[in-house]
Amino acid sequence: KQWYQRRVREQRDEDNEQIRPAGFHVIRLPFAEDIRKLDYQPTIPATPEQVQAAKAVVLKLKAKYSTSMIDNPALQKFQKTLEAIALERDTIEEVQDLTLPDMERIEARAAAELRAFNAATNPNDAPLPEDCRKQDFKKVIAMVNTKHREGLLNKVSVADLKSYCQGVRIKLPSNAKKADIVNAIQQMLG
């Protein structure tokens, strides 16, 4: 491995307060096989109407949040499993995953704003597919999000992945392979 060391000078503002201390940046130089070509796809900038519609949704869905309000579902499941083993129970208590969005509350709280946002960003007014309106689709979203967090997205069936993509409007070519679908979902979820 090769490293590049770059000296950084101290920076001060007009009041002689230190902004950045003096030091070094150490940068790892990549091998030739580490360098890859990125596919840049330019995006269309949002219109002022779309920005206002998005702001209205965000303002309507603001909530007080503290990290102590939501328990880690993986740790809760582990705790319940340990408890069941220690107390010699036959069943493990079900753990409610509070990290998943509560779609009913979101719909009740910001239905009008979401419709306005959809109208602003989807001028063709294409309705969601029938599959996406069913209760099962909420389970697919929850399952795909959970598998993504666990790093097991490639274990999800192709049918569920395609249903998820259709519901969240990820455009896929008709001949998309499972790896392509997983990559598209990972790019969207970050």
Describe this structure in words.
This protein is mainly alpha-helical and 190 residues long. It is built from 7 helices and 4 strands. The strands form 2 sheets. The protein has a two-stranded antiparallel sheet with strand order 1-4. A two-stranded antiparallel sheet has the order 2-3. It starts with a strand and ends with a helix. The model has no long low-confidence stretch (mean pLDDT 82).
User: What is the approximate shape?
Assistant: extended
Helix vs. strand class: mainly alpha
Helix and strand element order:
EEEEHHHHHHH
Largest sheet, spatial ordering of strands: 1-4
End-to-end Cα distance: 28 Å
Q: What share of the residues does DSSP label as strand, in percent? A: 5-15%
* Radius of gyration over all CA atoms, rounded: 23 Å
Number of strands: 4
Q: Number of DSSP helices?
A: 7
What share of the residues lie within helices? 40-55%
Uncertain spans, ≥5 residues at pLDDT below 50?
Answer: none
Largest sheet: 2 strands, antiparallel
Q: What do the pLDDT scores average to?
A: 82
